[in-house]
Amino acid sequence: MRISRFFIDAPLSLGPQDLPETAAHYIGRVLRLTTGAAVQLFDGSGHEYRGELVEVGKKRVTVDLHDRLPGLPESNLRIHLGQSLSRGERMDWAIQKATELGAAEITPVISERCEVRLNEERADKRLAHWRQIAISACEQCGRSIIPIIHPPTPLNEWLAVEAALKLVLHPVAEPLTAHQRPATLAVLIGPEGGLNDTEVAQARSAGFQPARLGPRILRTETAPVVALSVAQQLWGDFPPEH
Q1: Mean pLDDT (whole number) for 74-88
Q2: CA distance 50 to 54
Q3: What is the mean pLDDT of residues 201-219?
Q4: pTM across the whole model
Q5: Which of 29, 47, 91, 212 maximizes the CB count within 10 A of its CB?
């Protein structure tokens, strides 16, 4: 039997526990789960908790947690993705897939050719929206730790990120396979129109090495999927099975 799995934005512990209002509404009013339903919850600490619903009311949902389990291990390759801002579904897709592919941190990067400009209020709303996308992706893919979603950051500021290997995707460069295995990786993805020459030069001055994924130019929302998949295959937790 498939057990419903949910992120709870509050510390979890064994025994009876009332769920936060948002989670209670979703479980009780949206999904209409009933008393006795088995659930598996996680709070981002790296652990999972199994139990069952013991009370489902209009405003209150109580769960009895009886098992504490180790969560899915994170990749041994810690990836920080710098994804240039793009419109609506493109950005949502990039964050969802980067989460599924094990990115530990994601920063929406503001570069010159970005299609989107956000004021402070819109940026706050988008940040909350992107975090929820990451949470939903973790619920689906089995991750027990939610990646950090940073606020939108100007490119020149994000370039100061620390990592053992820092890569900027560029069509004229060495392939990813030319680099040695790092413990930490930062990957910069340009916008739909690409990074301009000045931005690429800035990235290189900040220690980023140009890298290419293949002979074709990928869309801004496709590039992180390919880059992270290749990086996890080469250096992370996608090793070939023997």
Answers
A1: 93
A2: 13
A3: 91
A4: 0.92
A5: 91
Return the H-helix or E-strand segment holding 48. Answer: strand 47-56
Residue 220's alpha-carbon distances to 36, 42, 169, 189, 190, in angstroms, are 45, 31, 10, 7, 6
Closest by CA position to 1, among listed 38, 28, 36: 38
pLDDT at 183 over 80: yes
Cα 124 to Cα 118: distance, rounded to the nearest angstrom: 9
CB 166 within 8 A of CB 209: yes
Tokens of 149: 């979603």
The answer to whether 75 touches 232, Cβ cutoff 8 Å, is: yes
- Token reading at 137: 């992706």
Identify the CA nearest to 31 among candidates 53, 10, 48. Answer: 53
Higher pLDDT, 186 or 123: 186
Structure tokens at 208: 């980023």
Asked if the model's pLDDT at residue 241 lies above 70, the reply is: no
What is the number of H-type helices and E-type strands within the chain? 6, 12
